[in-house]
């Protein structure tokens, strides 16, 4: 294994995720992930809609970013934090959570954007989300009104991806509480 490390990042060749203990009561999780590997195994492997064998699902968390903010930086940050609150429950259920802003915002800055909605922002923000969605297994739509998040749901449906509207709908998250509730 070749690994390069910086003070904050370590590259590794392979990571195995195990299903969290105590999720055996979640019928959605056990039926989709354990059937192919036997009920005695704690490793949850499945073939996703993309044909990839993987541990859990890669799920894009889509919610409002600009909606209702007037582009106020504090409100934009609060909207990202609201989406991020879903990442840990998804991760703990064995999934790979993705918040599009984690990739979009650094690229927006590199594109020379100086404010939300300018040319650099528009060049990157929604296109990177659509490219990312092409590699995801589903979308978790959270929060209130958002044309961009609704667009991600529409694209997901067109591409035959799973769309979830509540955390409890996601396999392994049946008993998880919605963040902020």
Cα(first) to Cα(last) distance is: 43 Å
Strands in their spatial order, largest beta sheet: 4-3-5-6
Strand content: 5-15%
Low-confidence stretches: 1-44
Radius of gyration: 18 Å
Mean pLDDT: 78
Shape: globular
Count of extended strands: 6
| Structural class by sheet pairing and helices | alpha/beta
The CATH class of the largest domain, by name, is Alpha Beta
Helix content: 25-40%
In terms of topology, how is this protein built?
Blueprint lengths: L26 H8 L11 E2 L5 E2 L3 E5 L10 H12 L2 H6 L3 E4 H11 L8 H15 L4 E4 L5 H12 L3 E3 L17
Parallel strand pairs: 3-4, 3-5, 5-6
Antiparallel strand pairs: 1-2
Distinctive features:
disordered N terminus; 6 helices; two-stranded antiparallel ribbon; Rossmann fold; alpha/beta; 4-stranded parallel sheet; single chain; 181 residues
Describe this structure in words.
- The protein is globular and about 40 Å long.
- The protein has six helices and six strands.
- Mean pLDDT is 78; it is low at 1-44.
- It folds into two domains: 18-47, no CATH class; 56-168, Rossmann fold (3-Layer(aba) Sandwich).
- Helix content is 35%, strand content 11%.
- The relative contact order is 0.18.
- Helix 4 runs antiparallel to helix 5.
Provide a brief overview of the structure:
Helix content is about 35%, strand content about 10%.
């Amino acid at each position: 294994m070749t690994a390069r490390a910086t003070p904050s990042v370590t590259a590794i060749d392979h990571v195995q995720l195990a299903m969290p203990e105590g999720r055996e009561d979640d019928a959605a999780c056990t039926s989709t992930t354990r059937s192919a590997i036997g009920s005695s195994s704690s490793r949850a492997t499945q073939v996703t809609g993309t044909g990839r064998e993987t541990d859990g699902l890669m799920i894009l968390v889509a919610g409002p970013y600009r909606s209702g903010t007037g582009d106020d930086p504090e409100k934009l940050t609060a909207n990202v934090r609201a989406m991020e609150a879903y990442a840990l429950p998804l991760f703990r259920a064995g999934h790979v959570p993705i918040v599009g802003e984690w990739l979009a915002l650094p690229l927006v800055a590199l594109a020379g954007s100086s404010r939300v909605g300018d040319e650099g922002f528009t060049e990157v923000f929604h296109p990177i989300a659509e490219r990312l969605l092409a590699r995801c297994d589903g979308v978790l739509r959270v929060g209130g009104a958002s044309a961009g998040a609704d667009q991600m749901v529409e694209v997901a449906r067109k591409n035959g991806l799973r769309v979830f509207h509540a955390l409890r709908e996601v396999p392994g998250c049946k008993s998880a509480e919605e963040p902020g509730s």
